[in-house]
Amino acid sequence: MRKGASGWLAKGLLLLLVASFGVWGIGGDMLTSSVGSNVIEVGDTSVSLGEFQRDYQRNLNMLSQRFNTQLTQEQARQFGLAQMTVNQIASRALVDEKTRTLRLSADDDAVRRMIQSQPAFRNQAGQFDRFLFEQFLSRNGYSEGEYIEIVRNDITGEQLFGTLEMGVNKAPDVLIDTFYAFLAEKRTAEYIDIKDSSIGFAPAPTDEELEQLIESAPENYSAPEYRKLSYVLLTPEAIAAATEVSEEELRAEFEARKDQLDTPERRHVEQMIFETEEAATAARQKIADGEDFADVAMADLQLTTSDIDLGLMAPADLLPELQDAVFSLEKDGVTEPIKTVLGWHLAKVTEIQPGETRDFADVREQLIKNIQLGQAQELLYDQATRLEDEFAGGAKLNEAATTLDLKLVTTDWIDASGNDKSGNAADLPDVTGFLTEAFARSPEDEPEVSEADGGGYYAVAVTEIEASAVKSLDEVREQVTEDWQGNWRHEEARKKAEALLVELNGGKTLEAAANELGLTVQTSQPVLRVGSAEELSPVARDGLFDLQPGAYGVNVNKAGDGTLVYGVADIIPADPTSDEEAFTQMKEQVTASIRAGILTEYENYLQKDIGISVKEQLIQEYF
């Protein structure tokens, strides 16, 4: 748009447009357009498009953090993010409306206590930390006022909804027993496994049969979509390599960081902490009388050797009160009792690793890299900004790279996995999300600057696309023939199993059937209706619970390379006393489900009573 607006004709048209507003004014229909209208209305509460967008963006950021990648708008649609945001906003508004009607409220002291009690806002000392609170607000895009109102809403919502579930202390026993008896029943199966490979020779398929198989599963015989890409990669290392560092800068950096460059002395420390000085003094006396440090720790504090082992510690790793005392000991020495905020300490040194002082020559190369990388971060941001400006001006990726003298890399054909047409891994940037973005874009898309791992940036453009296409029969004849014959053997194995099922239902024993086929009757591990199917396939496990004792079923085996003929070997009724933890967990889950159902029904009632209006079409237009 910027590039198109830079011409004299476009500028003239813009001036005429501005002048027309000055002469005729702005119509009321413009001020009440759909862009500025409310998208959600709950009772007297209205939510504008801008407010919805802020909540939507906040949810998008949180979801992106959870998946450790920036989600695209298309991915957000697949997650149903817009509908999730609608539900959140509507639920909050319903609570606001109803609590206001009932005159429920939460005063500022209650809100303050709620915020200060949240673990996320407490420091290591367990105290409310204003800095952590502000970090949370910034990270999630809340103002302090917005978050306070959310907390106030939560408190009043608990007043509203909390009373509804108070009467549901536990689910009815008959309901719990019925659920548990159903879900905790176990069964074992007796079965024989008729392998596809036992069928032996398979006929040669005709071309028509092969074509039919390809048509039924084209995805198995298609070449993947291939793309040619061009990209620019901005990394700290690449910019750092081109940055010169003077000798004066190196010397200044060395003097400023000398203490950090030296390797401090480290000591392997064992420690025990007592509540009183008397207890620590008595323990110290035992050690002086010849008892082992670890034995005293076990006898007095029930601490194991791993409990008292602090590992290798530098002075800065210890509390200030302990540093001089510990680092003045000889090997195997033990301190006198030392008081800190944690109590009275006894510490023992079991190993001493001397420190190392490094001179300028030792660290010269390291200093060069550090200075270069430090300078590169600022230069990198500047380059990324100038690249964005080029794109905003309408430049294509290759044009911007030429203008800014950046290295433009072009690839040969690659698929979405990063492999070339020979199946070999292509030389691509090791950047999270690079391939995902490359295969989400089209050649017509305007280029964008994206942030890469490690503080770098990249921009990728699609130059050509070779669409996925079903291969010809001649190209996949060997593969499709093998698949057809495998399917044929599998079907023949199933026919043999079904014929055997008829005989079993007619009175033949599974043992006799197995002997005729040269197979062995096997017995499975006990299985539940849900969870692991053990050596059975999930469908065979499901079928096992549909069978009556003495009946048999047929289903594919776990590996998918054969067919099981199976019956019930044993039924193990549910026994709450054998797994009290699982039974208790079930009671809690059923009770929680009943409570959740009550709350859901009440919220449904509120929706009908108060009324909710959502402009779905407008939301879909923007999101």
Overview in brief:
With about 625 residues, the chain is an alpha+beta fold. It contains 26 helices and 17 strands.
Ordered list of secondary-structure elements with their pairings:
Blueprint: H1 2-5, H2 8-24, H3 28-31, E1 38-42, E2 45-48, H4 49-67, H5 73-78, H6 81-101, H7 108-116, H8 130-140, H9 144-162, H10 173-183, E3 186-195, H11 207-216, E4 222-223, E5 226-234, H12 236-241, H13 247-256, H14 258-261, E6 266-274, H15 277-288, H16 293-301, H17 305-308, E7 309-313, H18 320-326, E8 338-340, E9 343-353, H19 360-392, H20 397-403, E10 409-410, H21 434-438, E11 450-451, E12 457-466, E13 469-470, H22 473-505, H23 510-517, E14 522-523, H24 538-544, E15 552-556, E16 562-572, H25 580-610, E17 612-614, H26 616-622
Antiparallel strand pairs: 1-2, 1-17, 3-14, 3-16, 4-13, 5-10, 5-12, 6-7, 6-9, 8-9, 11-12, 15-16
Helix pairs in contact: 4-6, 6-9, 6-25, 7-9, 10-25, 11-22, 13-19
